[in-house]
Amino acid sequence: MRTRRFGEVDPATGRKWGGSPLTHWRALRRGVEAGEVRVPCGDCSACCRSGVPIYEDDGRELPKRADGACVHLDAEGNCERHATRPEHCRLFTCTLMSIAGVVTDNEAMNQALARWEWDLSSPQDREFAENARRNEAEKTRAENLAAQSES
Ligand code: SF4
Ligand code: SF4
Predict the structure, then answer these.
(1) Using a 6 Å cutoff on CB, does residue 70 contact ligand 1?
(2) pLDDT at res. 151
(3) Which of 71, 75, 124, 129 is the most exposed place for a label (fewest CB within 10 A)?
(4) How many domains does the chain have?
(5) How far apart are CA 92 and CA 37, in angstroms?
(6) How far is CA 13 from CA 9, 47, 98, 102, in A?
């Protein structure tokens, strides 16, 4: 059976191959150390459109268009300042969110997360993914408790 490349899209399902979560995590750590993580985004620009705050390296928030997308996203869905995009963008990846089963309040982002397909055939990868999901669930619970105590 041919090995699928990281980020390869299955034409039948439209899903993107992520491979082993643990291997991906190790690659991401090397990317963070190098100052940039490489995500095969293809035709996706969901995170640039999601409306979440994005910050310049000096801490200023990037302006948004009326539809919530970053002002630097061009009409073709590409970043018009890709080479000089902030660290916030260079170190962002939706892959860990996908492994952790994150659900956001943005439908396009949720679709991008659901597109990833992970290889959970090894016990180590299953354990890694389960821990990521458990951590995410605990984080959500803590956030909900904090929100309740503020209201
Ligand atoms: S949501 Fe993920 S795949 Fe889509 S543009 Fe952002 S990082 Fe890339
Ligand atoms: S600066 Fe570029 S990569 Fe960052 S959110 Fe805007 S369009 Fe996306």
Answers:
(1) no
(2) 72
(3) 75
(4) 1
(5) 7
(6) 8, 21, 17, 21
Distance from Cα 19 to the centre of ligand 1, integer Å = 16
Q: DSSP states of 111-134 as a string?
A: HHHHHEEE---SHHHHHHHHHHHH
Which residue stretches of the chain have pLDDT < 50? none
* CA–centroid distance, residue 132 to ligand 2 (Å): 26
Ligand 2 contact via 48 beta carbon (within 6 Å): yes
Structural domain including 64 reads 18-150
85: left (phi over 0), alpha (psi -120 to 50) or beta: beta
Concatenate the DSSP letters of all residues of 35-56 into one string.
Answer: T------TT--HHHHS----B-
Q: Is the CB of 73 under 6 A from ligand 1?
A: no
Residue 3 lies in a domain: no
5 domain residue, yes or no: no
